[in-house]
Design goal:
By secondary structure, the chain is mostly helical. It has 18 helices and two strands.
Length: 579
């Protein structure tokens, strides 16, 4: 109270409660002012970020225009230079020929005139000394002289052209070097700007959240963190700990992300049950929701029909995916254009190879779902982490940890327990499920090899397009007679409707998973994705009455535990140095 200004006529608080109320009121006012200032700073930084993005796009366009103008001006200069050289060459040839012809004519005239005068004065013809042999000799000398002159001229022209060609090659190499240097400079500038903006947003959001949770402790740290030199993004990136990206996500964001990941797994499980309904494996129609209504299968679960369903589904996906990709990542088309212009064939082969393996896994899992219960098919498919770990160990020398080996054993036991027994031919479905797991492991490895070189959304768009192309090529390939379509043509309308449903479910699951990764992170979203087999079994039980035995349920639980253990190891485990 000694620091308060004196106020004549005002009542002076004497009790501790009144003093405390004044202090709390001052702190609340200060918190409101600081919150308002931080909000203004965040808005200003966002506006500056958008402006910087626009400036970078303008710089790219100007750079491309400058390249085009340089090439055009260079070609015009080349044409003008060539025309000038041709004119100079013609002038030199004409002058040399004129001089040589003038000298030779003069020499011939001087040699002929005395003979003519002597012959005329003696009353005879041409003198004997000027015989035809002499004229032939003079003509040969003239031809030789002209040939030598032309040879010298063409040699000089060839040397000049060679010199010009070497200079042109040097200039083109210099232009290529300048172009590469410009690309490196632009990429460095973009990365620095992005790192700078992300660093500023992380600092401001962390300060804002900390201040809201505990304003008294944050008052001492706010000024020091905001005054960090944001002009040097390298310092911010080096000093920022690895856990910053995880710590900046609030608990509410993580909860929303986990809920979205669970919804994505549920939508994907519903997709699997719809695929089961399409294939006509049971002798009786499916009684949906305990007999509320019945649904008959449409086609048999063979290779040809699986390709047909996949092609129709991908047709719907390719109609929706460009819009979804543009919404999720506006720079998707510029990234694809850059990938095409870069001529990075190694990356292209990895992307196309991953699309091919994903295509094979989709066809095989359809066959598996059509021949065995849906929950069992998805559980067998979920043994792919074992194959992925073994392939990584054999190809890249990434030896598994003890926890990962234990998880692999648990997954293997669960996969063995879910194999159906009893009456029925379950072997094709089990074999197709295992093959789908193997091919999906190849897709994962190629995707990991392409990580960091292409954004996930353009990568997914190219993968979906590749699956569509491979499905169409598979339909056009010659096939055995037993693979031919053997369903009623009147069912085409039903197939189109179910394909639209499958395509919408595919896009919905993809969008939900994308937002789940954005809010909760890829590791947490992958943990929720391990609930795919039980969700599929539950949805199949409540929709089409597909029940499982105790042994199969226990196998599903083991597979979930093993896959979740691997996900937790990736999330919390420490990266080991390669041996």
């Amino acid at each position: 109270m000694d620091t308060q200004p004196s106020n004549q006529g005002a009542s002076t608080p004497h009790t501790a409660e009144e003093v405390l109320k004044l202090v709390i009121q001052d702190l609340d006012n200060f918190r409101q002012d600081l919150t308002h200032q931080l909000g203004q700073d965040v808005s200003r930084l966002r506006a500056e970020k958008e402006q910087l993005n626009e400036d970078v796009n303008k710089l790219r366009k100007q750079y491309e225009q400058l390249q085009v103008q340089q090439l055009e001006s260079l070609s015009q200069r080349q044409i003008a230079q060539q025309q000038l050289w041709l004119k100079q060459l013609a002038q030199v040839l004409a002058n040399n020929l004129q001089k040589q012809l003038g000298h030779k004519i003069k020499e011939l005239k001087e040699s002929v005139d005395p003979g003519l005068q002597q012959g005329v004065s003696s009353g005879g013809g041409l003198p004997m000394t000027n015989s035809p042999d002499n004229y032939y000799e003079s003509a040969n000398e003239l031809g030789s002289s002209l040939s030598a002159t032309l040879s010298r001229t063409f040699d000089t022209l060839k040397k000049e052209l060679d010199s010009y060609e070497s200079d042109l090659c040097v200039q083109l190499n210099n232009m290529r070097g300048m172009e590469q240097q410009s690309e490196v400079i632009l990429e460095t500038l973009l990365s620095r700007l992005q790192g700078q903006l992300e660093g500023n947003n992380v600092v401001l959001s962390r300060n804002f959240q900390t201040f809201q949770s505990d304003p008294r402790n944050s008052l001492n740290n706010a000024s020091s963190e905001i005054s960090t030199p944001i002009e040097s993004p390298e310092i911010a990136q080096i000093s920022k700990p690895e856990s910053t990206a995880k710590s900046q996500k609030s608990p509410s964001q993580v909860q929303i992300g986990l809920i979205l990941a669970l919804l994505s797994a549920a939508v994907l499980s519903l997709f699997n049950v719809c695929v089961k309904i399409v294939f006509n494996t049971p002798p009786q129609p499916y009684q949906v929701f305990g007999g509320l209504f019945s649904v008959s299968g449409l086609i048999n679960p063979d290779v040809w029909n699986s390709l047909l369903i996949l092609l129709l589904r991908q047709g719907v996906v390719m109609l929706l995916m460009p819009l979804v990709a543009t919404f999720l990542y506006p720079a998707v088309w510029s990234d694809i254009e850059h990938l095409i212009k870069s001529k990075n064939f190694s990356l292209w082969w990895k992307v196309i190879g991953s699309a091919f393996f994903l295509f094979l896994s989709q066809v095989l899992i359809y066959i598996s779902i059509g021949n065995i219960p849906t929950g069992i098919a998805m559980t067998i498919f979920f043994i792919y982490p074992i194959i992925t770990v073994l392939l990584s160990w054999g190809l890249f020398g990434d030896s598994p940890s003890v926890l990962r080996i234990c998880a692999m054993v648990i997954i293997g036991l669960g996969g063995i327990l879910v194999i159906p027994g009893g009456v029925g031919n379950y072997q094709p479905g089990v074999m197709a499920g295992v093959a789908a797991s193997i091919t999906f492991s190849g897709y994962i490895l190629l995707t990991q090899m392409s990580a960091g070189k292409l954004h996930p959304i353009p990568f997914s768009l190219i993968n979906f397009a590749g699956i569509f192309v491979f499905s169409a090529l598979g339909m056009m390939m010659p096939k055995p007679v037993e693979w031919s379509a053997n369903f009623d043509p009147s069912l085409w309308s039903n197939l189109i409707v179910i394909s639209i449903i499958l395509g919408v479910l595919t896009i919905s699951s993809y969008v939900l998973n994308s937002f789940a990764i954005k809010f909760a992170g890829a590791a947490r979203a992958s943990i929720m994705g391990t609930l795919g087999p039980p969700l599929t079994a539950l949805i199949a039980l409540f929709t089409i009455g597909e029940a499982l035995g105790v042994k199969e349920i226990f196998g599903i639980i083991l597979v979930i535990i093993g896959v979740a253990a691997m996900s937790f190891e990736r999330m919390f485990g420490v990266k080991r140095k390669p041996s």
